User: What shape does this take?
Amino acid sequence: MKKTSKPVAAKVVAKAVAVPADTTLTDDQMQALAQAFHDIAVEVGQVRLDAIRAGGKLTDPAIVQLQGNVYSLMTTAANFAVQAANLTLANADQAVSEISLATQAADKALNKLQDIDKAVSIASSVIVLAMAISTKDMGQIATAAKGVVTAAGVSV
Amino acid sequence: MAGTGSYGDACEALTSAWMQAQSGMQSSGFWHTFDLPRKEAFVSVPRFGWTLWFRSFAIVTLCASLNGCVDLDDAAGLSKLSDEARIALPKVSKDVAATCARQNTFFENTPAAERAKTEQAQDCKPYQELADHLAKDQEALIAYFDALGKLSSNKPLGYDATIDQNVTAMSTNTAFSANAITAGNDAQNLMKALADAATHEYREKQLGQLVIANDAAVQSLTRALKKVITGDYGSVLLGNEELSLDTFYQGPMASAQSNERLALILVQRQYAHDKAALQTRKDAAASYAKAMDDLGALHAKLKDEAGKKMSMIEVAKQVGPIAESLKSALSDIQSRSN
Assistant: This one.
């Protein structure tokens, strides 16, 4: 499995807008989000596989949890790609910028991560972010994005 | 349309002259002499009849070889390409739904103890709806190119009655990705243009106007279909399927015991087989994208030629390489899905 996306930030222009307006995300933004969630799923899957290769059992709770996270993240990516295109967010550019910074932080932290608990924590925080995006509430999105950055423990 | 101006008219006039010459000879009782033995016929045909016939025949032959009394369908092979596209492109668009089913198969075949209790198989309905939507949009595109070929060669459209129904049936689902929505809108415009063409009996000389008027929609539709297939389907959905595949096989393979060696070999083979099949689907998506590029380029070229009023020979020369490339892309999709 391979990650194919370009960094989301490259496709996003963060703008400081005084008065937030409802904006539908562009198709490129939606596709970048879908790709970002897919890429994190790939990283989580790799952490799970590394843990199994290191002697972990397929039925270990943490490994099972990672498996569940992989599927949740894939489903999120697929939803963005297939049906959630008319996602309207207040101040969409800023929202996408925050989301992309968070997902990049998660991606970076998961890369070659061996701490399975930390991987579960990061993956779970990204799933919370996905749920926040579906609420279209900027406040929830910003909080969830911060949550991801905190769980990842890295800055981009 | 290019080539149907003065040169095309001249060709038509010459052909008509030849036909008149034929009918003139027939009505004069000259034509039946060909039923006689050759020598006798030669003797029995008055000299002026032969001269007229030979002149007409020579002119028409010259016309056919130089101008190529060819139409747009001959020049670009539009009808044939449309037939091939009608078989090849759905193989890719249908797989948008099939990938969901395959991913669910991996999920459902994973032992319950190895998967989170909260996880469920994916809902494939949105995938199926997108696949259906793409099928309608690409059918509109194919029907449009097919109609260009048929209108240029004065063949009956054959599906006039269904065009209105197709336009009505193409409701735009706003839950789809923006590219899919764009594709739907463009496809609707093309279907309306076809309905208009059928109603107003567009023929050769009006094809140029039809091509010019619909170029923007064709370019937009081909771009949108390409983006959905390469981005949404090729990159994300097939990427997800690859992750499902890897997750399904690699975990058990990595935890296999040494006494499971033979079973492991079998599983490795199955894994390699499934990976190869997935790669084939990715390649087919790439060929689909190429086909969309070629359809867009072909139409753009036809639009350019329409403005120049070039001969069909020249049009054929210009669009030939693009048509060949398109044929190759469609053939790639077909061979991969067999």
Notes: Helices of chain A lie at 8-11, 27-53, 61-82, 92-110, 116-135, 138-152.
